[in-house]
Structure formats: structure tokens, C-alpha cells
Amino acid sequence: MQDARVRAALLAICLLCLFGSGAVLYSGHRQAQAPPVVITTTPPEVTPPVVPLPVAQAPRIYIDVAGAVRRPSLYALPPGSRVMQAIVAAGGPADGADLDSVNLAQKLADGEKIFIPKRTLTPAAPDSPIVPAAAVSPRPVVKIAKSSQTSRSSKLTADSGLQIALNTATLDDLQELPTVGPAMAARILAYRAQAGGFGKVEDLMLVPGIGPKKFAKIAPCVKLN
């Protein structure tokens, strides 16, 4: 009997030891578990906006055009422009403009002012110096169909047989054409300077103010050279 009690006590002790070791192993296993993995997301990279570069503007010079022109004002012209181009930008010469008193081929500089005077009929002052006739250089002879010695007392006509050379005529020469006055003659010269000359007589209709009817009156009295 006593041996049976001893065996039962030993069995109970073994079971307690077995359960105790199992509890210890289970607790250690839980403590040894790896910590949870935390996944973080990084914000996407922000691309800075593309700022367009300013467009470079073509260089300009500023010219003050005043006097006998149709639209006196300040004008922006390309570098290397000449007086005639400034007059054309201002709408062309006004009626009575004295273009002979300015150098139409002169190059302009930035900030320059050009003044186009009007023609005056005021006689010269008594104390003005008198230029000898021999010192005055003769005007170039305009090429015409007939002899240059033929007189032209007024406007040319289709029946006169005379013709003005468009590519060499002066301001006064062009005023001898039918229906052409000082302003129209200046516009013809301005177009000739801008276009580099007339390629054909019909190019006259490209000049502002010359339409088919006016051209029909002028055409018999002009040629290219």
C-alpha cells in the first residue's frame, strides 16, 4: 500500500514537472517571435515646373520722325535703317514736304530725330551769299525716249512720246508724270528704295495710291531705265 502511494506521488511530481517545462517553453516561444514588420511608403518625388525661357526679340532702334510726314511719332526700326525707311514708317511725306533738303540715304542711329521741312516760297534775304552759276552742279539728265533737248513745259502726255525712267528719276522728274504730285512722287521713290528698284512698269500699282485708272494714265509716259 505504501509503495503504491509513493508511486502515485512520484507520478504526480513528474506530471507537474512536465507541465511546468511545457509552460516555460511556450512562454519563451512567444517572446522569441519576430517583431511585426512596419511598411512605410515614401512620397513620390515632385518634379519642379518647367518655366519657358523668354523669347529674344529682334534688335530695334527708336527714331523720332517729325515735320511734314503723315503720322509724326516715335518708330521702332531695324538697325541700319535709313531716313527714307523712317519716312515710309511714318506714312510717307505729307503734301508740300521738302525731301530735297534731307539725305534720304543717311543711316539712322538709335535715339535720333529727323525733321522733314515743308517747301517755302520765301525769297532769299538780301544779304544771303550769291552762289555763282558755274559753282552749281548740273542736274543729271533723265533718260527719255527722244532727245533730252526736247523741252517739257508741263505734264507729259501719251502723245508727247517722252518717257521717264522709273529706276533713275528724281523727285522733280516724277512730278512731270500725269496725276503725280510731290506726295505721290515721294511714295514712288520710297517704294523704289524699299524694293531695290522696279522690275516692271506694272509694279507702279504696288505704290500706295496708284490704282488701275491712275496707272493707265501714267504707263505711256514711263519706262524702267
Per-chain topology:
Elements lengths: L1 H30 L29 E7 L5 E5 L5 H7 L23 E4 L47 E2 L5 H4 L7 H14 L16 H7 L3 E2 L2
Parallel strand pairs: 1-3, 4-5
Antiparallel strand pairs: 1-2
Task: Give a quick precis of the structure.
This protein has 225 residues and is α/β, with parallel strands linked by helices. It is built from 5 helices and 5 strands. It has a 3-stranded mixed β-sheet with strand order 2-1-3, with helices on one face. A two-stranded parallel sheet has the order 4-5.
- Counting DSSP H or I runs of 4 or more residues, the number of helices is 5
Q: What is the oligomer described by this structure?
A: single chain
Q: State the order of secondary-structure elements, H for helix, E for strand.
A: HEEHEEHHHE
In CATH, the topology of the domain at 141-223 is named DNA polymerase, domain 1
CATH homologous superfamily assignment of the domain at 141-223:
Photosystem II 12 kDa extrinsic protein
Q: How helical, in percent, are the residues?
A: 25-40%
Helix and strand content put the structural class at alpha/beta
Return residue spans where pLDDT drops below 50 for at least 5 consecutive residues.
130-153
**CA(first)-CA(last) distance:** 157 Å
User: Please, what is the average pLDDT?
Assistant: 76
For the biggest β-sheet, the strand order reads: 2-1-3
CA-based shape: rod-shaped
User: Could you give the count of β-strands?
Assistant: 5
Strand content: 5-15%
Please write the CATH class name of the domain at 141-223: Mainly Alpha
CATH architecture name of the domain at 141-223? Orthogonal Bundle
What is the CA-atom radius of gyration, in angstroms?
A: 50 Å
